[in-house]
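Help needed: design a sequence for this.
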């Protein structure tokens, strides 16, 4: 491999290092949910406390660790600790204790029913006796939408890739989940890995693929191990591998660990990464369904999409449609974080109101009042506190001026500096811009600098940031640039007085 290619890769990926670190490395998250939990102050206190140790500990501020319900989060290798609990950090550094896992149990009653069925791959076994085209048809009848953010119709995607004549084809599970506020795929991978695998094998049968790849983020090591155990078990049971269940269908799954960066969740950046290049998004079309991995037709779905596809193929489209609130179909895993009593992952019927979800997670933390809502993670526009009536659903949230994204609701108390909150989000997108498009690379930095220098988001500053947003939205080739400045501007729309510093 020529040196310039090695250089281009080693300088691109966050988890590649050219030199060993000076000491052990404590990665401290600074993104939205952790910011709300006081990450900056916690980081400074940690820095002061650790400076007194003999051993050098490098404190590195990193992008979202996918532990938003344990905010403010930090990681020492695979161990997650709260950065505001100095004694815990010190104990973990000293190897004196296992870190406390104070994650609340995921609240997803209905999915446990999926779990029992999935372990035996009975849906796959039955599907192998049926026409593969039937699978996409049932998903279309159920109107299942992709759960990775873009909400594309899943049945339609499966039938489009099935119709492609080229071979071989690939099935990819997108488990990169790196947007601040999102961590539902982590819990699904940990608790229901066999359902993800079954969904991938069903997709393989439906489109005519023999190879599946799970692209998983670097920070999900325990989840990767759960998945690898499930793969090994499935091979023993002949649910994966050569001649699945003796029916002449070959399908196996491998795991690829992401070398780091939020942009790799974008499906074509993910493909570039799998092909050993810098993970920069491709221009679309062609879409991956036609020209995907190594130029071959490739089906890419989110972790949760595969789980729901398995459920629907086991129980039928009417079952799925009956799960939603009246006028809505299906249910959704939602990551809840911010200033609420019980942050965590909740399985809720589509159409549940934001207020209903807030109630289910115990309401706002004692003494806090709701000030703003980010209903679809860091990339979604903020909503004011009087919008608790809005239903969690793709169309309804879009009509309300925001989006559901991959399903990450962040509740903000009313005592936060909202300009700082907006800047925090804009800085995340600036940091994570891959740099391929000039407007996104330069414009995101420019907007952050303008607001930092002005200390307000009104008048001339607001006009210039709005103009930058319009340019980014029109000229960026991927969703990151298209939304990078939108959440910040949504705050200016809903809280004009606060943005003037009043
Ligand atoms: C910047 C960016 C980051 C993304 N990150 C993810 C991700 O982490 N996981 C995911 O499933 N989809 C992510 N997506 C969406 C994917 O490109 C793609 O639409 C999705 O994986 C398709 O699966 P679905 O149809 O099941 O939703 C991202 C998109 C963009 C623009
Ligand atoms: S919009 Fe931004 S993140 Fe997306 S490809 Fe362009 S530069 Fe990269």
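Sure. Designed sequence:
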């Amino acid at each position: 491999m020529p040196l310039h290619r090695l250089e281009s890769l080693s300088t691109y990926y966050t988890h590649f290092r050219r030199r060993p670190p000076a000491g052990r490395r404590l990665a401290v998250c600074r993104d939205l949910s952790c910011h709300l939990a006081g990450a900056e102050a916690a980081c400074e206190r940690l820095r002061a406390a650790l400076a007194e140790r003999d051993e050098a500990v490098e404190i590195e501020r990193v992008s979202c660790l996918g532990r938003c319900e344990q905010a403010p989060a930090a990681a020492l290798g695979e161990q997650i600790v709260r950065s505001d609990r100095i004694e815990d950090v010190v104990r973990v550094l000293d190897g004196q204790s296992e870190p406390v896992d104070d994650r609340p149990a995921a609240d997803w009653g209905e999915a446990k029913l999926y779990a029992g069925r999935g372990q035996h791959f009975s849906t796959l076994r039955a599907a192998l006796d049926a026409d593969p085209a039937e699978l996409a048809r049932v998903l279309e009848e159920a109107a299942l939408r992709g759960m990775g953010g873009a909400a594309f119709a899943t049945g339609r995607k499966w039938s489009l890739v099935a119709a492609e004549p080229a071979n071989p084809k690939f099935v990819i599970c997108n488990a990169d989940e790196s947007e601040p506020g999102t961590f539902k795929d982590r819990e699904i991978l940990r608790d229901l890995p066999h359902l993800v695998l079954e969904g991938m094998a069903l997709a393989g049968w439906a489109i005519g693929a023999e190879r599946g790849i799970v692209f998983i983020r670097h920070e999900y090591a325990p989840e990767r191990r759960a998945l690898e155990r499930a793969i090994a078990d499935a091979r023993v049971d002949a649910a994966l591998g050569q001649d699945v269940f003796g029916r002449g269908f070959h399908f196996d799954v491998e795991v690829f660990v992401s070398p780091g960066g939020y942009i790799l969740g974008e499906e074509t950046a993910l493909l570039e990464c799998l092909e050993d290049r810098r993970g920069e998004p491709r221009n679309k079309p062609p879409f991956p369904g036609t020209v995907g991995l190594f130029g071959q037709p490739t089906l890419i779905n989110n972790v949760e999409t595969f789980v729901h596809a398995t459920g629907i193929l086991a129980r039928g489209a009417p079952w799925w449609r009956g799960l939603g609130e009246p006028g809505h179909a299906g249910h959704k895993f939602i990551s809840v974080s911010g200033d609420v009593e019980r942050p965590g992952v909740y399985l809720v019927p589509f159409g549940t109101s934001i207020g209903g979800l807030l109630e289910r997670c115990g309401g706002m933390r004692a003494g806090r009042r709701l000030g703003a809502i980010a209903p679809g993670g860091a990339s979604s526009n903020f909503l004011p506190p009087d919008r608790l009536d809005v239903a969690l659903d793709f169309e309804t949230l879009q009509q309300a001026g925001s989006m559901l994204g991959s399903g990450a609701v962040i509740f903000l108390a009313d005592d936060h500096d909202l300009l700082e909150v907006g800047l925090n989000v804009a800085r995340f997108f600036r940091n994570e811009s891959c740099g391929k498009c000039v407007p996104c690379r330069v414009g995101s930095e420019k907007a952050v600098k303008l607001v930092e220098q002005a200390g307000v988001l009104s008048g001339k500053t607001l006009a210039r940031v709005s103009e930058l947003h319009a340019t980014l939205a029109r000229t960026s080739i991927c969703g990151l640039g298209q939304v990078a400045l939108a959440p910040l501007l949504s705050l200016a729309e809903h809280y004009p007085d606060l943005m003037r510093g009043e």
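The longest helix spans residues 438-454.
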